[in-house]
Specification:
Layout lengths: L1 E4 L4 E4 L6 E9 L2 E12 L2 E7 L1 H6 L3 E2 L1
């Protein structure tokens, strides 16, 4: 899966076995905001890729 590394400012390919998915929920004054992300660790740096709900559900990786 392709991620963008902010530290090196380049795209990197991370094996699907190293990718995890996470759901971040935060409270706002109007309710809750949910953000879906794919995370990986590559070359000593954490990588995040924010995705929509459909992509989050269709991705077959372990959820954190």
């Amino acid at each position: 899966m392709k991620f963008y590394n902010l530290k090196t400012r380049s795209h990197v390919d991370v094996p699907d076995s190293d990718v995890r998915k996470t759901k971040m929920v935060r409270k706002t004054k109007n309710g809750e905001q949910v953000r879906y992300a794919l995370t990986a660790e590559y070359g000593g740096s954490k990588l995040f890729k924010f995705v929509n709900e459909a992509t989050f559900k269709s991705t077959n990786v372990k959820e954190v």
